[in-house]
Amino acid sequence: MFKKGSRMQEHVGKKRRKEVREALNMRQELNKYMTIMVVTLVIGIIAWSALSYLMVTGVIPNDTTFMQTLPYVLLFIVIIFIGSRSYKWSALHERYRKHCARYNITKSDIKALKNGEM
Questions:
Q1: b/e per residue, 73-96, with b = 16+ CB within 10 A?
Q2: What span, in angstroms and rounded, lies between the C-alpha atoms of 91 and 96?
Q3: CB 70 within 8 A of CB 51
């Protein structure tokens, strides 16, 4: 298509690397959001379990309605937080998929960029 070593070929290569780098950045951001959601869920479940256990064993008195509903309020807040993050993750994932489809980026392209082969 282009002569080897021509300016046009260099321009196309730079643009391709730029698009693959952008896809790689999106993928890393997706992984970050997923990690945040999983860690938040695990911490929330642990906190809920610990609080419920402490209330059942009597370490924390649960004589008021507030204390009885506190574990569920905590779990509700965690679910709201995860829901907002999952919405952002979903939007970013859709943008990532469209970007990869538009520029025909595959996993092998991303691996080649990571390894410095591109």
A1: eebeebeeebeebeeebeebbeeb
A2: 9
A3: yes
- Give the predicted TM-score (pTM) of the model: 0.77
> How far apart are the C-alpha atoms of 34 and 84, rounded to whole Å?
12
Q: Residues with Cβ < 8 Å from 61, sequence gap 6 or more?
A: 67
Following DSSP, what letter does each residue of 43-73 receive, concatenated?
HHHHHHHHHHHHHHHTSS---SHHHHHHHHH
In the block, tokens 């282009």 appear at 2
How far apart are alpha carbons 100 and 92 in whole angstroms? Answer: 12
How many CB atoms are closer than 10 A to CB 105?
20
Cβ neighbours for 44, distance < 8 A, ≥ 6 positions apart: 74, 75, 78, 79, 82
| Residue-range domain boundaries for the chain | 16-115
Instruction: Render pLDDT for 75-110 as a digit per residue (tens, 0 to 9).
Output: 899 999 999 999 999 999 999 999 999 999 999 998
Q: Which amino acid is at 79?
A: I
